[in-house]
Task: structure prediction
Amino acid sequence: MEINTALRSHQLERSEVLALLHKFLPRIIERFYGNVPLPALSFDYAPVRNLGWYREEDGLALSHRININRLYADRPCAEILRTLTHEVGHCWQRVYGKPGKGNYHNKQFQAKMAEVGIPCDGRGHSLGMQEPFVSFLRELGVEAEVLLFKREIPVSAGTSRSRLKPWKCKCTRVWASGGVEVEAMCLKCSHQFQRQ
Result:
């Protein structure tokens, strides 16, 4: 018997949390990822900054292993399933796509996550939960709603996110916070600074 299958059987008998994740995992794969291998699951402690992680091979003979961080076990089911679905996305990319450096969140991965309804940024930070993922969770009987956690601000070349505004006299330019009124005279040219 393959080790992933043996582990899955053991987890179904011994862990309520992993049994629940195994219940949803095939449906997540079928709905969003097609024919990817069924990953091995674990529910163990991981660094605080990680909600979960994916490894193609883990050195323990498990393949396509996904760990959900036990530190965040108290999160709502919808959020745990969002993390699981995100990590399955890494498995999908390993099998069908071209993983980014360090197996992380390149443009292909970000596009797939947006298509699923759980967009992320280049660092893998979730930007929210939206359709079709929210409807999928509701079909599973999991309480969910559309959420936007963060908003990415697209920046095109030549633009800046700076909140500083330019002020100019006859000979020089200075920058001050956007909400600040500058009342100053240039010592060099003796002209008052004007907002540009």
